[in-house]
Amino acid sequence: MLFDSIQEQYRKLKENDAFGVLLHPKVVKNYLLYQKEFKEQPLEMKSQPPNIEIEMTNRCNLACVQCLRSVGLKPYKLGDMDPENYKRILAQFPYAMHISLNGFGEPTMYRHFFDIVAYTRQERPWAKITIYTNGQLIDEAMAQRIIESGLTEVNISIDAARPETYRRVRRGGKLEPLHDNIRRLVRMRREAGARLPMIGLNYVMVNDNEGELVPFVEQAAEFGVDFINCISWAAYDWGFKNRRTRESYLRELEAGKQRIDELGIRCRSFPDISTRWTDPTKPFFCDFYWGEQFRVTYNGDITLGCCTPFAETYSYGNLLEQDFWEIWNGPKFRKNREMAKRNIAPNRTCASCDMFCKSFFSTAEGGGSPAVIPLSPAGAMAPGVVEEKLTA
């Protein structure tokens, strides 16, 4: 077991060209302490999350069906992070090992994007620096800058294999130009003799792309990308409704896994071919409170990750107004940790999570009941409010 863990850590360091972290013992010490605390789950943490997500902008050029924008909800305030504020926030995470420059917007729309990447690489030379993008804006000039930027990894989200499906799922975008952008990026990196950034493609299973996981896998293999991710969708509190059955879900996963194995393409994330997570006896529990996710909005708020990206709905505090440790071990986080350990969902958003809603799947092909009861912003918890009556 220990040998396997050492092998995995070595593989990650090699893949991300991150052996420089070994020259920074405090970073390694924090990571090892974090792993220990992540297992023990204390109410007060002595380690920082090694993986952080900092939102550059919450503006986006698409309106995807699984996004809150698709059901008429928008961020209460659109905005971009001030570069000086980014520096102030990053300075509070001296032990960060993975920095994702993402949030609820398209990072390549941010006008200071490449300056921020360069600054991050300079200040955290050992860190893995990642973006998730829809790829629509990666023309030749941007592809060249990406290759030279210092990014470790570029994840391009597609969620479709056919142009007509892409138009329905990722509204506002076009699939054929995106495929051209991916081919160009892969080709230009190869011609530059560069290994980084690694290039991956993401596929989120939604209602409209049923049956397209296998052709997506085949297209990814043809493009020559480094890896793919397959992700089951989330039914968060903005009311996304699943219309697919258990049989449809499992059938597509099985076919996709078989094709991945046949083509030998690397898949870094793939759902369990199971529906055990919908077991009605499964108690609520989430590792988020111990740093599985740590997300900072463009204006400095720490929110509930992707689950609720709005500070107006739920915020633990603001890193431009408070010190990290004051928030991380403050009353809200401590209370939420204590409730999670008692299997109590601390707020309405957590109670609506897809991992714990018990009627996710439709009962009949082609339709069914909503996955969860939609909660409007007005019905969501007020900022920082904890509701102990909600149980999983």
Gross geometry: globular
Can you summarize the main beta sheet? 8 strands, parallel
Distance between the terminal alpha carbons, to the nearest Å? 33 Å
Uncertain residue segments: 365-392
| DSSP strand content | 5-15%
SSE order, as H and E?
Answer: HHEEHEHEHEHEHEHEHEEEEHHH
Q: Kindly provide the radius of gyration, computed on alpha-carbon positions and rounded to a whole number of angstroms.
A: 21 Å
Strand order of the largest sheet: 9-8-7-5-4-3-1-10
Structural class: alpha/beta
Tell me, rounded to a whole number, the average pLDDT.
86
In DSSP terms, counting alpha (H) and pi (I) runs of 4 or more, how many helices? 12
Walk me through this protein's architecture.
The protein has helices at 2-15, 25-40, 83-90, 113-123, 140-149, 163-169, 175-192, 213-223, 246-263, 324-328, 331-341, 348-351; strands spanning 51-54, 63-64, 98-100, 128-133, 153-157, 170-171, 198-205, 227-232, 267-269, 295-296, 301-302, 317-318. The chain starts with a helix and ends in a 41-residue tail after the last helix. α5 packs across α7 and α8 (213-223) packs parallel to α9 (246-263). The chain has 392 residues and is α/β, with parallel strands linked by helices. The chain has twelve helices and twelve strands. Helices cover 34% and strands 11% of the residues. The radius of gyration is 21 Å and the shape is globular. An eight-stranded parallel beta sheet has the order 9-8-7-5-4-3-1-10, covered by helices on one side.
